[in-house]
Design brief:
316 residues, alpha/beta, UDP-N-acetylmuramoyl-L-alanine:D-glutamate ligase, 35% helix
């Protein structure tokens, strides 16, 4: 039986995030590491971890290299995430995240990942089909490894929506451009990704206008991440800017994924837009205050809800 609260995230290009702390990182010189950690990552995995911490039943499917799958398996087991990932011979890629400075600045070095072949992609598609009976929402998040066409998410969106499922898309470049044409239920670009999509620089108000045009074209919800300035939440009826409270930032890794997870969690519970926007910003704010996977304890996230400021925006 399909659960109205069950979510599947699809991770075709996951990564092991190798976090490195360097007090005063600079290119072209010796840098000394003062902290390091490794976590299972990639957008879809991060979203799943945050959803699980918010009490949402979540499954992850996608591609994992069998040689270093243990870090993902430990995360899934610790958070009660159902593991429906397809293993392929070899390694899942690693990404390097360098955090430096008193006001933490993030330098990211992301490896492209490898595509094991159409045989394994077909296994993922069968796993998705098997989950149709159980999940009402699917989140397609992250980049596509080289070898998978940039139209892949668009094709998958069409299949899932034909089965009556809500589909959220969080990607960039060609995968986002083609995916938007498939009219998913929700997209979550950041401002730079939205600017690339529309082909021009955007102020926050112009971004709201661009988001409203996407809604008019058939996408039900557009969430635009503005970094430390918060996010825009746009539907046919409302256009809100949600502003986070002052927060001590330890790392921005996964903040956008927490934002998406919080909004989806609110939507799955049937909350109106202002409430789900508050939860999204609360989750993102809690996320930047920690290093690791997922979110801090739920009462800590919920305590932030009342501190989120909401403003109505009148797009151009």
């Amino acid at each position: 039986m399909t659960s109205p609260f069950a979510v599947t995230t699809v991770s075709l290009n996951p990564a092991i995030d190798h976090g490195i702390g360097i007090a005063d990182f600079a290119a072209g010189r010796l840098n000394r590491v003062n902290r390091e950690e490794m976590h299972a990552g990639g957008k879809a995995v991060n979203v799943a971890a945050c959803l699980a911490d918010l009490g949402v039943a979540v499954t992850v499917t996608g591609l994992l290299g069998s040689d270093n799958a243990g870090v993902f398996e430990r995360l899934f087991a610790s958070k009660g995430i159902r593991d429906a990932c397809v293993r392929f011979p070899g390694h899942t890629r690693s990404n390097i995240k360098i955090v430096s400075g008193d006001m933490p600045q993030l330098t990211e070095i992301n490896f492209p990942g490898s595509f094991p072949g159409n045989e394994y992609l077909a296994h993922v598609e069968r796993a998705v089909d098997a989950l149709l009976a159980e999940c009402s929402c699917f989140v397609l998040a992250g980049s596509l490894p080289a070898g998978i066409p940039t139209t892949y998410y668009a094709d998958l969106i069409g299949r899932l929506q034909a089965a009556g499922k809500r589909v959220a898309l969080d990607s960039s470049g060609g995968a986002l451009r083609h995916g938007v044409n498939a009219r998913p239920w929700l997209i979550k670009p950041n401002l730079a990704e939205l600017e690339e999509l529309v082909g021009e620089p955007l102020s926050d108000t112009a971004a709201a206008t661009a988001a409203r045009r996407l809604v008019a074209a058939g996408i039900e919800r557009v969430v635009v991440s503005l970094g430390e300035r918060g996010a825009l939440f746009v539907t046919a009826d409302r256009c809100l800017r949600a502003i986070p409270p002052p927060t001590i930032v330890r790392s921005t890794v996964g903040a956008g994924d927490a934002l998406l997870a919080g909004h989806i969690a609110g939507c799955m519970r049937g909350w109106p837009l202002p409430n789900s926007a508050r939860l999204a910003i609360a989750a993102a704010s809690a996320r930047v205050g920690m290093i690791g996977s997922g979110l801090p304890p739920r009462p800590q996230v919920e305590a932030l809800l009342a501190t989120v400021e909401l403003r109505e925006i009148d797009p151009d």
